[in-house]
Amino acid sequence: KVPLSSEVSSLFGLFDSGAERTQTSSFEIIIMIRSGGGMSSSIPVAIQSLSQYHPVIIEGMGYYDPRDPKVVASHIYDQLQAHWSDQQQETSQEQAVIDVIPNQYHLQGGANSSKDKPKIVIIQGDPLNERGISAITPIVAEQHLGVKRGLVYLDPEFADYHSRNADRENVILEFKYSDMTAVLKKETTTTMRPTPVMDEIESAVDALLDKKNSKRKLLNKPPLKSYFRDFALLQEVTKAACLQICGDITIAHTANTISEFSVTSFYEVGLDLGLYTKDQMVLYDQFDELDFEKIDKR
Fold first, then answer.
1. 129 CB-contact burial (10 Å; exposed 0-12 / middle 13-18 / buried 19+)
2. What's the pLDDT at 114?
3. How far apart are CA 12 and CA 47, in angstroms?
4. Partner of 221 for a Cys bridge, out of 13, 213, 216, 232, CB 3.0 to 4.6 A?
5. What's the confidence (pLDDT) of residue 100?
């Protein structure tokens, strides 16, 4: 344990002389503020850093995607730009209403607070391949948006290979899945949402997984691999936690048609539970002829 630097103290407004930091892993630093003799709170610095960004999460097929990743990335970029341009116009209109009738309308955090943040592309541990999501996201981030990336990976008890094999090029922030679940577990239940959100997500993923496997049985297909549950949870928890941390999010798909037996298809869980809205999603909006029976042999 070492004293906090004045720069870090200033960043978080921590001027208590009792503040100190502890290195808990290769990427996470915990800020602890001591009040008298006891520790009053702990703030993961990586989480605090993420809150300064607008997360962009791109979902889609893995290595089996037959399309040119450069072409796909270019189209996603165009769709993102159009999406943000539309949002900016809506915000400008809202701001005009606020300016005219300031006492009757209020947007939490200011009209442009979340949309004006710098973007960061959040990836979920896919190993680098020549095609598919792991080839598409670095092109979107570096070549088109000119932004950095953040990584969320499964804890070793779920998949000990996941962090080891993850692509870390241009990555400035890293999180474990458990870091994301911890964010959601802090949410309190309400009359509108009486069940803890993590319980809701896990139950909904399990129910959809059973539904998909029942259909596969009718089609004389084997059940989905056991890892589908872990990666579906990683996908939906990451989006929900990023939204909770940052106040807004943009989700983009890499294809217009999503295979019903893919991890990506579990986005239905997030929408059904109201973890995010369709307004935060960017459709690929271009038809590519994809025969999932041929390209995805799982």
1. middle
2. 64
3. 12
4. 216
5. 53
Contact 261, 67 (CB under 8 A): no
Instruction: Please indicate whether residue 34 or residue 258 has the higher confidence score (pLDDT).
Output: 258
How many alpha carbons fall within 13 Å on the CB side of residue 228? 21
Q: Average of pLDDT values for 205-209?
A: 98
CA distances from 74 to 134, 143, 249, 257 (A): 15, 9, 20, 18
Could you report the per-residue pLDDT of 60-97, keeping only the tens digit for each? 999 999 999 999 999 999 999 999 999 888 776 665 55
CB within 8 Å of 37: residues ≥ 6 apart: none
CA nearest to 62, candidates 136, 162, 122, 120: 136
Is 22:32 a contact under the CB 8 Å cutoff?
A: yes
Please give the structure tokens belonging to residue 81.
């730009």
**Predicted local confidence at residue 195, as pLDDT:** 87
Is it the case that residue 34 has pLDDT exceeding 80?
no
Check whether 157 has a pLDDT greater than 70.
Answer: yes
| Sequential DSSP letters for 224-238 | PPTHHHHHHHHHHHH
- Over residues 234-251, the mean pLDDT reads 97
Longest dimension (CA), the chain: 66
Neighbours of 31 (CB within 10 A): 20
Q: Can you list the alpha helix ranges (DSSP code H) found in the chain?
A: 6-12, 45-50, 69-100, 133-138, 162-165, 177-185, 197-218, 227-246, 267-273, 292-295
Tokens representing 253 are 């798909």
C-alpha dihedral sign at 13, 15, 18, 21: positive
What distances in angstroms separate CA 223 from CA 47, 160, 298, one per listed residue? 36, 23, 10
